[in-house]
Amino acid sequence: PCPFGPRCRFLHDVCAYLAAKPADLGQRCVLFDTFGRCPYGVTCRFGQAHLGDGHQNLVNAALAQQWEGKLLVRNSLSKDLQQQLRKRRFTFQKAEEFLRGLRAGGALKAEALQDSPRAEGALKAEALQDSPGAGGAPKAEALQDSPGAGGAPSIPTLGPLTDEDVTKLRPCEKKKLDIQGKLYLAPLTTCGNLPFRRICKRFGADVTCGEMAVCTNLLQGQSSEWALLKRHHSEDIFGVQLEGAFPDTMTKCAELLNRTIDVDFVDINVGCPIDLVYKKGGGCALMTRSNKFEQIVRGMNSVLDVPVTVKIRTGVQEKVNVAHKIIPRIREWGASMVTVRGH
């Protein structure tokens, strides 16, 4: 029985519904032919292809078994995760650690030592930070562990140490992204959605990237923004592009994606000229805010297990090119690849 009784606006008689339903658009249902079942049942506009006696929805068991357990589209936003984000119950451990060090003033120097390929003493510096007998060595880590450092609680030293406690992922140990000689479909806002990328994959695209997603909307659990992160199973090399203006939101968003979705790289949008983005300090405005730009790249690189890439413009002002000056610095900050929008 319907709990709404006579106030219900919907039909409960299948025969009456089908009599009022418009005629089918064809005799074949592509979902039934492909997957062995159609989830739309009697509401499908090609329903005659899979409706049997008594208007029962038919299932091709042999074909459906082939797709059982396979995820056609990944990176969807679950209800549990959405509730955690909306109620601010999601914990950002790595991001908070980086931001505490950033506020303490020593994080950038420590990260520079760890990320620089020319720093021969990077591991020694880290060992000195962890050593209780190092006189003047403790910097970011020591400030974070100290009870008097901005009220941060001290970390207990009793109990066994795990690899997660003492081992940090070095740049040389990150997941490698080999795209040499491959065709890269650039991220296209309002155009490069999942169906478009599937078509491009059939025409020969090797690497695909999702549309620009605003990090603050992702952190709020907006379903429309999370839809930009969806990945089809045919996209073997796939990345997402993030837009933001501040290191706290960008670093937290990077950690969130690192723990919840499956991607091969994360791209930072530093090329968007839209006023709505530029006036907030994001997009190509980051090219003129080098300190924030550096903090964003370093922060995201510290929490991600996949490479960080950056897209920039040749410059912000007309006929004033600065890309050639900023690219070497982006490399030092930890980015694995820089793409330049040539206008």
Mean pLDDT, all residues:
82
The CATH level-2 architecture of the largest domain is identified as Alpha-Beta Barrel
What is the string of helix and strand elements? HHHEHHHHHHEHEHHEEHEHHEHE
CATH domain topology of the largest domain: TIM Barrel
What is the gyration radius calculated from CA atoms?
A: 26 Å
| End-to-end separation | 63 Å
Count the domains: 2
Overall geometry comes to elongated
Q: Give helix % range.
A: 25-40%
Q: Helix segment count? A: 16
3D structure, described in words:
With 343 residues, the protein is α/β, with parallel strands linked by helices. The protein folds into 2 domains: 9-70, no CATH class; 79-104 and 172-341, Alpha-Beta Barrel (TIM Barrel). The chain is 37% helix and 11% strand. The chain is built from 16 helices and 8 strands. It has helices at residues 14-20, 30-35, 61-66, 79-86, 93-104, 107-115, 122-130, 140-145, 163-166, 194-202, 215-219, 223-226, 247-260, 275-278, 290-303, 323-333; strands at residues 73-74, 184-185, 207-214, 231-232, 237-243, 265-270, 308-313, 337-341. It has a 6-stranded parallel β-sheet. A two-stranded antiparallel sheet has the order 1-4. Helix 5 (93-104) packs antiparallel against helix 13 (247-260). The longest helix is centred in the last third of the chain and has 14 residues, at 247-260. The protein is elongated. The N and C termini lie far apart (63 Å). The model is unreliable at 117-154 (pLDDT under 50).
